[in-house]
Design brief:
The protein is of the alpha/beta class. It contains six helices and twelve strands. Strand 11 and strand 12 form a beta hairpin. Bound molecules: glutamine. This is Pyridoxal 5'-phosphate synthase subunit PdxT.
Length: 222
């Protein structure tokens, strides 16, 4: 069976480990470089991207992880995990010494942190999500119920980055909490090669298909 690591430094790694096991793979918490060995894929969870960045550097994981991503390890990042996979952050945080937060990179995108409005903790909406055709019924592919918790959006995608889902201004009206999209469709899920990222948290809603898509990517079936 597949062994999927979940970066377990901070954030909601337990929910991802559960989602991976529900999908039929073995989930492995990753805290040290040796635990990157023998993985078929890795998930970077939601949480706080600045904390995960700092801990990854303190645990000497950041360099090896950057290298594994460059070597083609399949990686899925949700929320903070999307930020950590991004080449660029539009509004990086700085630590007390003024050093900007760093990312592992791999995805040629620019993200904006906490993009949906700082004062609002979260919002929820239903999204059309490309790549989930394997789950189609005679009614088509059911939308993904997406929960955003201080999530980023994607402001730029480079060549080779496929947009899988966007929040449309019309979705905003149906959202359970308003989000300020400034009238523009906002990209919230992308794929580039073996890298997948979502601004939202399928691991907290019982939505299984995003993890299933990631497993299909690892198997070369998607
Ligand atoms: N705002 C957080 C960050 O910058 C991400 C929030 C999340 O992962 N739920 O890391």
């Amino acid at each position: 069976g597949l062994r999927i690591g979940v970066l377990a430094l901070q954030g909601d790694f337990r929910e991802h480990l559960r989602a991976v096991e529900t999908a039929g793979a073995a989930g492995v918490g990753v805290r040290r470089p040796a635990e990157l060995e023998g993985l078929d894929g890795l998930i970077i969870p939601g949480g706080e991207s600045t904390a995960i960045d700092k801990l990854a550097r303190a645990f000497d994981l950041a360099g090896p992880l950057r290298q594994r991503i460059a070597d083609g390890l399949p990686v899925y990042g949700s929320c903070a995990g999307m930020i950590l996979l991004a080449h660029d952050i539009a509004d990086p945080a700085a630590d007390l010494a003024g050093n900007p937060q760093q990312t592992f990179g791999g995805l040629d995108i620019t993200v904006r942190r906490n993009a949906f409005g700082r004062q609002r903790e979260s919002f929820e909406t239903d999204l059309d999500f490309k790549g989930l055709e394997f789950s189609a019924t005679e009614d088509g592919v059911a939308p993904v119920h997406a929960v955003f918790i201080r999530g980023p959006w994607v402001e730029r995608v480079g060549p080779g980055v496929e947009v899988l889902a966007q929040v449309e201004p019309a979705d905003q009206e149906h959202a359970s909490h308003a989000a300020d999209l400034q009238g523009t469709a906002r990209i919230v899920a992308v794929r580039s090669g073996q890298l997948l990222a979502t601004s939202f948290h399928p691991e907290v809603t019982g939505e299984k298909r995003v993890h299933e898509l990631f497993i299909r990517m690892i198997r070369g079936e998607a």
